[in-house]
Amino acid sequence: MRRWRGARGFTLVETLVSLAIATIAVTGFYQALAQGAFMEQRADAQADQMFVAARIMDRVGVDIDLRPGTQENGALDGFEWRVAVTNSATEDMALGIVTPTELIFVYVTVAGGREDAPPLVLRAIRYIETPL
Questions:
Q1: Residue 1 confidence (pLDDT)
Q2: Which of 1, 9, 35, 103 has the fewest C-beta atoms lying within 10 Å of its C-beta?
Q3: Which region, left, alpha or beta, applies to residue 80 given φ > 0 means left and ψ of -120 to 50 means alpha?
Q4: What is residue 132's predicted lDDT score, i.e. its pLDDT?
């Protein structure tokens, strides 16, 4: 077959290369969308855990005793929670010099929701109220 001088167009190889490049670009785009959807679901689960932990923390000192040694467990909105009130801080807290009877440490742990979500721990430090 003869080609005319004025005939222009793409060869089969050029067309296949351009289709391969377009396929790679579209695949990357859909992977980015899937990763974004996964991250959104994970953020929603963490926000739900944080909301439950804040609700439980608000109950400490009202419905839940605020004295060292208190431990309570429960369930709320499909999440399991645990409260621990102690006189000791965790190792990662850089508090400086604190007398043992000055502070109370409250730990609220919330687990549940998604299977792959780690438990969330909300910590609070409160002063021990001393009588006048």
A1: 56
A2: 1
A3: beta
A4: 44
Q: Are 85 and 105 in contact (CB under 8 A)?
A: yes
Single-letter amino acid code for the residue at 65: D
Alpha-carbon distances of 131 from 3, 94, 126, rounded to whole Å: 103, 27, 15
Rounded to whole angstroms, the Cα distance separating 77 from 11 reads 62
Model-level pTM greater than 0.85?
A: no
How many C-alpha atoms does 70 have within 13 Å on its Cβ side? Answer: 15
CA distance 89 to 103: 9
d(CA 67, CA 11): 81
- The H or E element that residue 73 is part of is strand 71-76
Give residue 62's pLDDT: 86
Residues in the chain, pLDDT under 70: 1-7, 96-100, 130-132
Query: Could you write out the DSSP letters of every residue in 81-128?
Result: EEEEEES---TT----S--TTTEEEEEEEEEESSTTPPPEEEEEEEEP
